[in-house]
Amino acid sequence: MALYQNTKTGQLVEFIGYHDKEWAMVKNSSGQVNYVALADLESYEASKGRTGEKPQPQSAETEVDEDKLPETIIPADTRLNLNVATAEAIAKHVKGIGYATAKKIVELRLSLPAERFKSFDQLKKIGRVDWDEVIAADLIFIA
Predict the structure, then answer these.
(1) Does some domain include residue 73?
(2) Is the pTM of this model over 0.90?
(3) What b-and-e string marks burial along 41-66, b requiring 16 or more CB atoms within 10 Å of the CB?
(4) CA distance 126 to 123
(5) What band does 75 get if pLDDT is binned at 50, 70 and 90?
(6) Which one of 13, 59, 61, 122 has the largest count of C-beta atoms within 10 Å of its C-beta?
(7) Is residue 7 part of a domain?
């Protein structure tokens, strides 16, 4: 199994297998299984970050020991989940975002359907923050 980052949400996921030509089955750090578009996945190494590689097909010929306990390859995530973070946590954790801007982020989140961000693009409505730099610094994610 390989570790990937969902470029749409920033979440680290474990690649389980292909669903069809354009979708993959992945597992996040809490064990939840989801389907993600292959175009949204980019390989990730804990020590290096994103490597730019896309998922490769798994071979059906590889034998798998069903009785062996699977290794956990998703490291503990120290990044901040913006869908559950408080304004204080955002201001303290993300360099370049003050408390006033952090409150605007929380207000925007609460105004969205289901009170959750679905992609990083929604954050760009908040001005005075270089979101491309914050996302590239890999300090936040959306789950």
Answers:
(1) no
(2) no
(3) bbbbeeeeeeeeeebeeeeeeeeeee
(4) 6
(5) low
(6) 13
(7) yes
